Amino acid sequence: MTLETVLLAVGPTDADRIGQLADAVLEVAMPADATVVLAHVFTSDEYDEVLDRLEFDRTVDEIEPDAVAARHSTIHDLEDVFDEHGVDYSVRGAVGDHGSTIVDLATSTDADRVVVGGRRRSPTGKAVFGSTAQEVLLSAPCPVTFVRSDDHAG
User: Fold this and answer.
1) Helix/strand/coil (H, E, C) string of 7-39?
2) What residue ranges define each of the domains in the chain, with the CATH number in brackets?
3) How many Å apart are CA 100 and CA 78, to the nearest integer?
């Protein structure tokens, strides 16, 4: 299977693991000269909060999720890493349930690999994934790389 498109899905809790996520993507994307789709997925509540925080003018007809994602600091940090390594990328924003929306993005972008982050859910070190990561792992149309954060909080 040729690797042409890697979908890196990030959300509001991924700012602390940008380096780990970028490394995981670079490891698979660079040798294949693949394009990376940087996707920031927001729930409706998160989207409203981000619109306020980033001071978007809500009087305009409609604010596209792609534009909101492009102004998010997590995406900027990842863009810096990919620019530094000469990796082609595009930015996508989406609003909806995290898990199913990531799966939908993987399908619509024809992704060959999905990279998602998550946390270990118990201090005993059981391999229990959060609901978002679990849904993506079970439902994505392609292989999924799960990047666990270094923290071991339950």
Assistant:
1) EEEECCCCHHHHHHHHHHHHHHHHHHCCEEEEE
2) 5-148 (3.40.50.620)
3) 23
Q: How many CB atoms lie within 10 A of CB 108?
A: 12
Read off the pLDDT of residues 27-82 as tens digits, 9 standing for 90 and up: 999 999 999 999 999 999 999 999 988 888 878 768 899 999 999 899 999 999 99
Taking a C-beta distance cutoff of 8 angstroms, is the pair 141, 110 a contact? no
- Report DSSP letters for 46-95, one per residue: HHHHHHHHTT--TTSS---HHHHHHTSHHHHHHHHHHHHTT--EEEEEEE
Tokens of 32: 């294949």
Look up residue 118 and give its two tokens: 């998550």
Whole-prediction pTM value? 0.88
Residues contacting 15, CB < 8 A, separation 6+? 73, 74, 77
Element (H, E) at 146: strand 144-148
